[in-house]
Request: fold
Amino acid sequence: MTGTSERKHHFLLVHGCCHGAWSWYKLSTLLRAAGHRFTALDMASCGVDTKPLDQVHSIVHYYQPLIDFMASLPAHERVVLVGHSVGGIGVSLAMERFPQRISVAIFATAMMPS
Reply:
């Protein structure tokens, strides 16, 4: 495209139910090839996260890795937040708590709580 700026973004990928950060491997490859940054997190007790399942008592506990990551972002950084399936709940939670750190939220066949 002529005349458009190629602005690079930081994508934050939130997996769905019964998945982990590994589920984003195809998309992360495409994002990297396009020059974007990405972070794919494992939610509590998923993928490589070592929290025992019996210590995940609520949806807030489940999304704690996402909340911790969002809180650790530098004040000037904004992410493109992408959630799949039940990951939409985490996207909504992050939107409520960190609206200034999200440039856009994408619900990819995801739950969108009101």
The chain has one domain: 10-110. Residues 87-97 form the longest helix (11 residues). Strands lie at 10-14, 37-41, 79-85, 102-110.
